[in-house]
Amino acid sequence: MLPAVVKLCCGISYPHLRSMAGLQRTAVAVIGQEITNLQRWKQIRQHMKAHVGSKYNEPKSEDIKPAPSKEDQLFYVQQGQEAMRIALTMLEDKEGWKVEITETNGDVICSKVISGARKVFRLEAVLEASVDELYDLLFVRVEEMHQWNPSIQQIKVLKHIGPETIVTHEVSAETAGNMIGQRDFLSVRHSCKQKSCVYLGGAATQLESFPPQAGFVRAEDGPTCIVIQALDEDRRKSRFTWLLNMDVKGWLPKSIVNQALPRAQLDFTRHLRRRLTASATLG
């Protein structure tokens, strides 16, 4: 299934911007190294086709998640890593961002127009949760997200590609006031841990055995990413940075889409805070 650019716009200090940029450069370098190690995947894929062939298992209505072939693993891991690299590069580029929304609780959303005249949105917030807790909620237990986020009807993991990469199918809920309407998404999601920081990246993908579903408009995510960074002054809190990059498809006017997406980010963050508060109360 992230944010702001200059300290005046985002309410964050120059040292934090330098720290954030350093973390992003580190992540890009690490992911770049991973991709370099996987650049032989095409040759491996050609070799394996002679022995394995290309076939996918049909996803069932039950929670059956067949193990992907090695060539699938290489393809989806590379796709997830590349999506994260591109998204982090967008975050690192400080030029062209404009403030869209500033909330009284300190949350800030900025936007930027990218190639194709599409807007991407960066949300930056501080959450009362550790990096590990947020990683668990947003990646490890992603299938449970509908339990605390009413904007989501369902998220199902179709493929597990090791501990860091998954392929998911997501259906948005039919909620009152939803200007965009119900959509479904088929996405590859990739995670990367770097000391006190977690990176979650993703992008739309394709699966021959899971074509667009009847009755839904299939929207496309990405490249998109979330950066979760522990605060130096309090490791029980995290800086949450979310780059939202989405093509909702359909025939909606850009003006409607550009109003709805940042509001969806604020709604998601509000629901996430409620889930964290409930967990803290039960704990």
From TrEMBL:
Entry keyword Cell inner membrane: no
Highest taxon, organism lineage: Eukaryota
Gene Ontology terms: cellular component: mitochondrion
GO molecular function: cholesterol binding; cholesterol transfer activity
Domain START per the UniProt entry, residue ranges: 68-281
Subunit structure of this chain's protein: May interact with TSPO.
Alphabetical keyword list: Lipid transport, Lipid-binding, Mitochondrion, Steroidogenesis, Transport
Protein name: START domain-containing protein 1
Pathway connected to this protein: Steroid metabolism; cholesterol metabolism
Gene Ontology biological process: cholesterol metabolic process; intracellular cholesterol transport; regulation of steroid biosynthetic process; steroid biosynthetic process
Subcellular compartments: Mitochondrion
InterPro entries (UniProt xref): StAR (IPR029866), StAR-like (IPR000799), START-like_dom_sf (IPR023393), START_lipid-bd_dom (IPR002913)
SMART domains: START
Reactions listed under catalytic activity: cholesterol(in) = cholesterol(out)
